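Task: fold both queries, return C-alpha cells.
Query 1:
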Amino acid sequence: MTELDLAIQWQWMYAFGQWALAAMAVWIGFFPKRLVHYPQVVTWLLILYGASEAVLGLCQVYGFSASRHSLYALTGTFYNPGPYSGFLALVFPLCLHECLKRRGGKKTIPYYISLLVLFAILCVLPAGMSRSAWAAALLASGYLCLVHFRSRAVGFIKRYGWLLLVAGVIGSAGLYRWKKDSADGRLFMWKIAAHAVAERPLSGYGWSKVPGAYGQAQEEYFVSGGYTEVEEHVAGSPEYVFNEYLQVALAWGIPVLAVCLLGVGGCLYAGHRHREYGLCGAWVSLLVFAFSSYPLQFPAFVAALFLLASGCAWCSLPAWSRGVRVGMAMLLVAGCAACYRQHGVSHRRVEACREWSKCRMLYQSGAYARAATCYSSLAEDMEWSARFLFEYGHALHKCHRTEESTEVLKRALWVSSDPMILNIIGKNEQELGRYESAEHWLLRSVHRLPGRIYPYFLLANLYAESGFYNREKLEQMVQTVLEKEPKVQSTAVRQMRQKARELLSGKSQEKTKQ
C-alpha cells in the first residue's frame, strides 16, 4: 500500500468521523432512551464490514479478485495478510457471540447471517498465516466460552487445566519454531524499543518520529557491543515496532500509555457488566493482536477501536444525569471539529501524495534534476514521509547538490530508521572531501545494521581515497566485505566483492610501482 492509498483511507475515516460524531451527539442529547440499542448497532456494523472483507478474501484466494500486494495472494482491502487477518480476528468473536446467544431460541435471520460470516472468516483466517491473528481469535473465543458456558468451562479448567497448559506451551513452541527468524526479529524489536522508551519515558518522541528514535536506539545498542549473532542476523530497519503498547509509549510516553490502558480497562468493565460480551471479545482480540502487530497504523482498526470503546462505555449512558449526557454531547461536537480539522490536513496530504506519484516517474527514470525540482515544491507537505525525504535527498545527491542533499536526509533521520540515509550522507561528505565526517556517518550505518555489507564496501572506498588512505583499515574493510555472510545472496553482493578485490589489488600495484 502506497502513502497515497493510506492517506486516502485516513481522509475517508475523518470524513465519516465528522458525520458519525455529529449523529451520536444528537442521539445522546435528544434520544437517550434509544442508547440501549447502540451496542447492537456497533456490533452489526463491524460484522457486516467483516463480512465484506471475508468475501473479498475468498475471491482473492480463488483468483476472482486481485490482492493489494504483488507478493501476497490474500490481503483483503489491506496491503498485507497480517493486518487483514487481525481485522477478521477482531470480527470473529462478534459473530461467535451472536451465534451463541441465539443458540437456544428460535433461529432468526441475524443468527444465520452471523453464522455465515463466522464460517467465511474460518475459511479465510488460516490462509492469512498470521500467528498473532490466530492467537487473538483463539483467546477471544476462550473468553466467550467462559461467559456463555461458565459452569462447564470452570469445571473443565479445574479438571483438565494442566492439559490446557501443556497444550498451550507446546503450541506456542511450535509457532515459534515455525517462523523462528520472524519471532526472534520481533523479540529484538521489542528489546530495542524498550531501550528507546527508557531514554525518554515521560514525553516520548512523537508518533511520526518513532522510527527515527528506534533507529537511534538500535545504533546505540550495537555500538555497546553486547549483542549476539542472532540479533545481528534478525536486525532490520522497521517502520513499526510490532507492539502497539511500546509504540504508544515511544510516541507519547508511559503516562499516556497508562491512561490509555485505564480507559481500555474501564470499557471492558462496563461492557462485561452490561453483558456486551461480543464487544468485550472483540476488545480481547484487538488487545492480543496489538501485542505483536501494528493495527493502529490503519484507519479501519482506529475506527473499530473507537466503535468498540463507545459501544462498551455508552451502554450505561441512559442511567446518567442529563448534565452528564449534555457534557458527552459537547465532547462529541469537539471531536467532530477535530475530525474536520484532520480531514483538511488529510486532504492536503492526499493532494501532495498525488503530485509525488507523478514526480516519482521522473525519479525512477533517472531524471534526477527534474525530480529534485518537482520534489522541492512538495517538501513542506511531505515532511512526514520517510520515503519521500529519502528520494528527495537521493535525487539531490545524484545531482551533486551535496549540501542540500545532506540537509534533507538529516530531516529524514527523524522519521526513518533506514541506514541507507546514513550511507548517502557519508557519500556526500566524501564527495566534499570531508573524510573524517564521511567516516563518522558510514560507521553509524555499520553500527545501525552490522549485518549489511554495503556500508563496509563504502568504507573500503573511503579508505582507498588518496587524501584519506589507510592500508590497515582498507584491508580490514575488504576482508569484511569478502567474508561477511549476507542475508540473501545477490548479484549486488557479488559485484561489491569483486570491486573490493580490485580495489585492494589496485592499491597494492600502486604501492609496488612506487
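Query 1 returned. Query 2:
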Amino acid sequence: MKDNNKSKISFASFFGWPLILLAVILLSEILMLILNNEHGMAALPYMVLLALLCLVFYFLGRKRIIPGMTAFADEYDTTRQRLLESLTVPAALSTTDGKIIWRNRAFKDAVSNEELGSGNLISLFPDLTKEMLTPADDIAVVHSSIGEKRYKLTISWENLVGKTASKNPMIPVEASDRMVVVCLTDETELLEYRQLYNDNRACQGIITLDNYDEALASVDEVRRSLLTALVDRKLSNYFSSMNGIIKKFEVDKYLLFIKDMDMAYVIEDRFSVLDDVKTINIGNSLNFTVSIGIGMRGKSYDDNYDSARKAMELALGRGGDQAVIISDGQIEYFGGKSTAAAKNTRVKARVKAQAFREILDSKDQVIVMGHKTADVDALGASVGIWRTATALGKKAYIVNGNTDASVMPFKKRLTESGHYPEDFLISGEKALALVDPATLLVVVDVNRPSYSEEPRLIEKCSSVMVIDHHRMGSETIENPVLSYVEPYASSASEMVSELIQYIDESITFEPAEADVLYGGIVLDTQNFVVQAGVRTFEAAAFLRRKGADVVRVRKMFRENITDYRAKAQTVDKAQIYKDCFAISVCDPEGTGSPTVIGAQAANELLEIDNVKAAVVLTPYNGKTFLSARSIDEINVQLLMERLGGGGHKAVAGAQLQGMDVEDALAKVRAAIDDMIEKGEID
C-alpha cells in the first residue's frame, strides 16, 4: 500500500510542475510592482503570456501524455506477462494456505492436472507444510518430490494489494496482501548422479588377525599353512560376495577395498565374518579372532586410510574380535562379544617400559592422574608411577581429589606414614600451575579425558602418557607420546607392576605402596576371580616380594555394618528382567561409599541361578551410577556403551547425568531390549 501511494505522489508531482511555475511567476510580478512600479508594469504582459502557456500545457498536455503512458504501460504489462508465461523456470502464486491461484506454462508442464489434484501446494508436495508458507523475511528452500521427480522449492512472499484482475489479468481478484511465490528447480538428475557418486565411493579397511602367533602355536606345524589358508579363504569369500577386494600385505594383515553401497550390506549383515573365522578348526586349540577397521566417506583416499587405521587402533584397544567403522567423524562398533585374549608374552610390556624410561629421562617432573572419584586401582597405579619417577630422580606429584570411602584406609596409611613430602598428593588446580614444557603427565586407569581427575591438565600438557586396562571408546586422549592400553589386563595396578619390573626391578617399595598396588589388583579382579590371567598372578607375586601383605590388604577392604546391610537390601530388592538380567537400585542413604556398594551388590547378584548379567543403579551426587557385571555369557561393556559408559566384558559401568532412577531404569531396559532385537544378546 505504501509503495502504491508513493507512485501516485510521484506521478502527480511530475504533471504539477506548470502550476508551480505559474505560482513563481505571479509572486515575481507582485514583487516587481512593489519594488519598481514602472518596471513591473513593463513586464506584466510577458508574465501574463507565460502564465497562460503554463495553464495551457497543464490541461492540454496532460490529456495527451496520459493516454500515451497508459498505452505504454499496457504494452509493457502484456510483454511482462508474456515473459513470465514463457519463463523456463516453473513458477506459481498461491495463498498462505497453499491454494494455487496462478502458474506459468513451465509449471503446468512440470505438474500435470492429475498430479495437481486439489490445486493446493501442500497436497502436491508431501514435504511442504502450512507452517513453511507462513510469511517470513528470508527466502525459504524446501526439497520435495512429485512421483519419481525431485524438486527444490524456492519460496518467497510478495505484497500484491491494490492489483486486481481488471488492472492486471495475471493477478486474480482474490490476491491477498502477502502472496506466496514458488519457483521449482528439477534436481532429479542431480540427485541421481550424487547418489551414484556416493554409492561408488571407495571405502578402505584394514583387517588384522588378533592372535596370529598364539593360534598357530596351538596347532601342529604341518597344519599351520592350511590353517592360515582357510582363514584367507574365509575372509576372501565373504568380502568377494560383497563385491569387495581383499589383499594380504603381511602374514596377519589385509587391505580391504569396497564400495560405499556394498558396505551397506556388510553393515546390515553386522560383519558375520567375525564369527565365521572363529569356527575354523583343524585341531587348533585356540581359534583365530579378527579385528576390522573401516574408513569411509572421507575427503580423499588418505583420509579414509587414516580413519581405517584409527578404527583399527580402537578395535585392538577394545580387545579385538570386532569391527569399527569411522564415517564422517562418527564411530560405530560391531562384534566384540568375546573376552580379550590375554597374551602370555611380555614383549609389549618390555617395549612400553623402555619407551617410558626414555621419555622420563627427557623430563624434569611427572604428574600422575587417575579418574574422578578414584578407586584403589587408580590410586595404586598412581602410587606405582610416582615411586618409579622418584626412584629415577624426577620430582613427581599425584593429582587426587575426591575418592571412594573404600580408598580412605589406603590413602590415610600413605599420608600418615611420614615417608612422603607434603606435595605428594595435590589438587588439580595446583597441578595446572606446575605444568611446564618439561612436564610429563601420566594418566592411569582411564582413557577418556572427560572422566579424568582434571581434564584441563590433558589439554595443557604437551607430553601425555596413557596406561589403562579399559576398552577404548569414541572419546580418547589424542596424540599421547605413549599409549599403553591393554583390555586383557586385570587392572591398571597390574600393568604398572609389570612396567616397573622392566624399568628397574630393584626399585624399593614402601609396604604401604606395595599394599595399595596389590589392593588395586584385588579390587578389579574381585579377589582373583574376574579377568585374572597368568600375568595377574605374576604381578601379585612381584608385589608380595616387594612387601605387600595379603591379610593387611584384606582388613583394609572390610566394610562397616551399615554398608553391609545396604548391600544386602540392594540384593533383596533385585528384579529379574527378560529371565536373565538382575536389576536393582542401591539406596545411598547413610552409606560411606554408595557406588562401591552398588558394584559389590552387582557381584553378589551373579551368584543367583540363571542370572547372566546384573545391573545396579545408585543415585548419588546428582547422577545415577550404573554398575554392570556378568560372568561369561553377556558382554556388559556393550550394554554400558549404549548408555555412555564402558569397561570390560564382565565388568562395566556408566554415569547418567540429571536423570532420576525411574528414567534410568527405563533407559537400561530399553538398551537391553535393543541389544536382544539386534542379536547382540542371545
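Both queries returned. Flag for query 2: The longest helix spans residues 37-86.
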